[in-house]
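Supplementary Methods, section 5.1.

A reviewer requested that the exact input to the structure prediction be made available. We therefore reproduce it here, unchanged from the version used in the analyses.
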Amino acid sequence: MNEQANARVKALLDEMVGDGREVGLQVAAYLGGQLVVDCWAGVAARDEGRAVDGDSLFTVFSTGKGVAATALHILAERGKVDYDAPVAAYWPAFAANGKARVTVRDALTHRAGIPQMPDGLVPEDLLDWDKMVAKVAELQPILEPGTTTAYHALTYGWIVGELVRRIDGRPIGRFVQEEICAPLGMRDIYFGIPEEAAPRVAHLERAEPEPGVPQPAPDSIAARAAPQELVRIIAQPPGWRASIPGGNCVASARSLARMYAALIGEVDGVRLLPPDRVQVATALQTGEVDANLGRAVNKGLGYFLGGTPGAAIGPRVTAFGHSGAGGSVAFADPEHGLAVGFAKTLLTTHADPARSHTLLVCDRVREALGVA
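The structure derived from this sequence is encoded token-by-token as follows.
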């Protein structure tokens, strides 16, 4: 542990909680394969009077997309999946309604053409894996597959997760536990928590969006990709226990940072992917304006990349990871051997990404560790 750096980061967390900007925060960082920052502040569950500690778990929403991508890349490294093969080669039903040519690469870069959720769902449907993958397989593209990149807020997870299940045989939640967590001597990255983990999960709160935050029109891609009347179930106890890889990862900052550290180097003798596979997985695929998000996003194969203004992942396009709704993030910066996980209780939305609390914390981590 770098005690000086840890103290500097902890001071910022305490300040944010103390002045009311945040409720509960948790951050961890690895440098050169060693845990150097591991701190927290505030409350995990006001209704229980439960404070955040290092073992608290948080719903980190789309931060889990990077975990799902890692699972698929492990299978690619084993020669079991080809990025340029059609998804339907592994999942024949996916070819329905004009999706026969959608490739695994398209799915990982949000170019599958189906960012929208199926019609006619109720929240409980999101908890039923078989129902959801059947519904996703039936979707008709609203964008030409392989062309426009449009963030697949939830459908991404069922596509990638079902690919993992069909190729490997194990559900993605089990795959993550056995192929990512177990080799690293950890447990706390879940797509579906075990019952004994429930008392450690934070109870999230939602802050009012800042003035100037655009609200999606009812018929927009953004509204159709993550309908609010459905997604609220993700951060509730039924959602914790289900597998929704596009949006309901439950994890600790410490475990997320450890996973990313093991993607860019050894952690206690374990490396999840060799350097050449990481280079392939994190090479820039598109930096176009995303038709859902409405801004330019640098994307690799399932990971978001740094190099765009206000990106908490950092200023370098070689940095890779994923953020989640409300401000969670996890990433690696291979040029400096840095890996970071950040989770929070209060879900915030900022009109100016450069003012986000997530960016402030990640910048403090970089500054405290001398990673400019």
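The chain has a mean pLDDT of 96. These observations are discussed further in the main text.
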